[in-house]
Inverse folding.
């Protein structure tokens, strides 16, 4: 009898809850309203697209309801949703609330929100920036997983834990700072963030779980502020190549880090106040082949910044002047994680070889290109004038050295200092060059 009475009481309670909740649609947004509490939650099932503004209150049957939440899966897979405004009355965002909203570009979470469910913004691939309010204490599991467009995110000091796979696959993130109040970093929290180059781990972190920073192959610097080594799974940095990274740690703890895996696997372990000498990008090498300037560099992934000037660009008032095609080329190489290379200068010009004509009005004047570069006093001449002699003189006529062009190249070693001006003679053509 007692069991029947208990079951009957439960059924009455469920009927009472159902009676208090009602689904309504107002201005295209679907809500669950609780009549007795006069509150409402946004729910799924609406045709959500474009820009959505959620109001703080709605009126239904002459009763005003306060919007207090965005329910589980409310905007799940609404790929046409581009932006949403959440009012200050909302205190919670449910599980998968915005899952796979691939068109969502902008969202502001108010400080009234105190909880955000798992998967809340997972696969929102168009989101580029999001501010997590100080009212949030936990980054839920898979919250931002697959947000490939996310380039910047600030984790507030109020957060104490980062859930499993929270930022997995956020391929646009370049650096991240984990605040001091965070005590744990979950499994695969930052797994496969390929552009991540630096991470600051706050002083309060106690646990770093499996593959938390795995497959982040561009990571170069980890700043770990905690004096007591975090309990860290051995594969936390799996496939991120810590042997090529620099670990920055408190001075009093450096020996503990050096003796404990996986921290001991780092290629360089230094104190936080140490200065890291950045390697210098290799100097570029300039050459001229088949009508094209070619630039190479030994440093992988180097990019080049080139400036070209024509010596004879300008206005001339004289009725008697000499011109020729002569260009000054300046190039330096730059690469991520490297200081810029030295600036390498080159002179490119053409010299006439011979003249031939016929009885027509056309005249052909073949010319050969000459590219002159210098580095550390060594002058290199790149031209197809094989067999021709190259002579080098100072600007006041003193002979420095000579060479014969073979295999399209000639090299003259000098003891001249940087910025010295020399004259190079080839086939009676004189070229002024500044030594690098």
């Amino acid at each position: 009898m007692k069991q029947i009475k208990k079951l009957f009481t439960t059924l009455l309670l469920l009927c009472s809850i159902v009676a208090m909740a009602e689904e309504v649609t107002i201005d295209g947004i679907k809500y669950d309203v609780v009549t007795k509490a006069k509150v409402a939650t946004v729910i799924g099932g609406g045709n959500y697209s474009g820009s959505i503004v959620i109001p703080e209150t709605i009126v239904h049957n002459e009763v005003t309801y306060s919007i207090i939440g965005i329910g589980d899966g409310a905007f799940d897979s609404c790929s046409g949703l581009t932006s949403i405004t959440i009012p200050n009355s909302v205190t919670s965002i449910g599980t998968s609330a915005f899952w796979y909203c691939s068109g969502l570009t902008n969202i502001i979470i108010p400080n009234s929100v105190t909880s955000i469910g798992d998967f809340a913004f997972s696969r929102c691939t168009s989101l580029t920036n999001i501010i997590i309010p100080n009212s949030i204490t936990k980054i839920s599991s898979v919250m931002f997983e697959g947000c490939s467009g996310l380039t910047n995110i600030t984790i507030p000091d109020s957060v104490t834990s980062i859930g499993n796979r929270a930022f997995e696959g956020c391929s646009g993130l370049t650096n991240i700072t984990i605040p001091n109040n965070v005590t744990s970093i979950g499994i695969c929290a930052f797994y496969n963030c390929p552009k991540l180059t630096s991470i600051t781990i706050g002083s309060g972190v106690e646990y770093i779980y499996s593959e938390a920073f795995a497959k982040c192959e561009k990571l170069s610097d980890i700043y770990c502020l905690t004096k007591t080594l975090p309990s860290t799974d051995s594969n936390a940095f799996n496939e991120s190549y810590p042997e090529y990274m620099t670990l920055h740690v408190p001075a009093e703890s450096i020996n503990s880090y050096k003796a404990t895996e996986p921290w001991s696997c780092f290629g360089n372990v230094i104190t936080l106040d140490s200065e890291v000498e950045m390697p210098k990008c290799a100097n570029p090498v300039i050459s001229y082949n088949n009508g094209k300037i070619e630039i190479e560099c030994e440093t992988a992934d180097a990019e080049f910044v080139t400036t070209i000037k024509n010596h004879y660009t300008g206005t001339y008032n004289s009725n008697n002047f000499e011109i020729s095609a002569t260009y000054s080329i300046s190039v330096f190489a730059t690469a991520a994680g490297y200081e810029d290379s030295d600036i390498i200068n080159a002179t490119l010009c053409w010299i006439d070889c011979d003249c031939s004509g016929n009885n027509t009005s056309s005249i052909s004047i073949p010319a050969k290109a000459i590219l002159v570069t210098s580095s550390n006093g060594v002058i290199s001449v790149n031209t197809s004038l094989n067999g021709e002699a190259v002579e080098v003189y100072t600007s006041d006529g003193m002979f420095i050295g000579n060479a014969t062009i073979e295999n399209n190249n000639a090299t003259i070693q000098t003891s001249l200092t940087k910025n010295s001006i020399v004259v190079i003679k080839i086939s009676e053509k004189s070229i002024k060059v500044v030594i690098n």
